[in-house]
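Hi R.,

As promised on Friday, here is the backbone we talked about, encoded as C-alpha cells. Could you run it through your design pipeline when you get a chance and send me back a sequence?
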C-alpha cells in the first residue's frame, strides 16, 4: 500500500483576535489581546496615571489628555490598516485596567507601517514591550509589509534597547530635536 504524501500547510497568519494570558515576573497576570471599543474608558483613565515623562516619551511632546477622536480611532482600528494590542487585567474590556498599548498603522500607498508602544511604569521592565512588539511584527508580516518604523526620543533608552534587541536599525533624523527613527526590515 502506497503512503500518501502530506503537504505542508502554509503558516497561518496570526489570529488578530487571540487573547494570551501572560504571567509577569512579579507574579501578576495580564491578558495580551486586541483592543476593544470598551477599552476607551480604562485607557483614558490609565493615561491620567502616567507621568509627564512617560507621555512625552511616547508622544514626543507633552500631552495633557487623549483627544476624543484619537481615543475613538485607537479603540476601533481599521482592520486592514491598523492593529492595536493591549496588556490588560484579566477582566472583560471596559472593566480591565490597561497597562500597556501597542499600535501599528499602515503608511498609505507603501509597504511600510509606523508603530508605537507605551508601557506604563506600573508594569514596565517585565518583558511586555517585547511581547507586544512581537505581536505587531507578526501583524505586519501577515499583511505583507516590508518595513516597520517608529520615531523615538534619543533619551528613551528603554524603547531604543527594545528596538535594538528585536533587530531595528537606528537612524538620526536631521532637525528633529532629539529624535531617532528605528526601522525593521521585514523581508
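Update: got your reply. Pasting your designed sequence below so it's all in one thread:
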Amino acid at each position: 500500500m502506497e503512503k500518501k504524501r502530506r503537504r505542508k500547510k502554509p503558516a497561518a497568519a496570526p489570529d488578530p483576535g487571540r487573547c494570551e494570558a501572560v504571567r509577569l515576573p512579579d507574579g501578576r497576570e495580564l491578558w495580551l489581546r486586541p483592543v476593544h471599543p470598551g477599552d476607551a474608558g480604562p485607557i483614558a483613565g490609565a493615561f491620567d496615571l502616567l507621568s509627564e515623562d512617560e507621555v512625552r516619551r511616547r508622544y514626543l511632546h507633552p500631552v495633557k489628555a487623549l483627544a476624543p477622536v484619537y481615543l475613538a480611532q485607537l479603540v476601533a482600528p481599521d482592520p486592514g490598516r491598523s492593529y492595536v494590542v493591549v496588556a490588560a487585567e484579566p477582566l472583560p474590556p471596559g472593566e480591565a485596567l490597561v497597562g500597556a498599548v501597542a499600535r501599528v498603522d499602515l503608511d498609505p500607498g507603501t509597504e511600510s507601517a509606523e508603530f508605537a508602544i507605551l508601557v506604563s511604569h506600573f508594569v514596565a521592565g517585565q518583558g511586555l514591550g517585547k511581547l507586544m512588539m512581537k505581536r505587531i511584527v507578526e501583524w505586519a508580516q501577515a499583511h505583507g509589509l516590508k518595513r516597520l518604523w517608529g520615531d523615538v526620543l534619543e533619551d528613551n533608552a528603554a524603547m531604543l534597547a527594545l528596538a535594538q534587541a528585536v533587530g531595528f536599525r537606528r537612524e538620526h533624523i536631521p532637525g528633529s530635536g532629539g529624535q531617532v527613527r528605528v526601522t525593521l526590515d521585514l523581508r
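One thing I noticed while checking it: Helices lie at 40-49, 52-59, 68-75, 128-142, 157-166.

Thanks again,
M.
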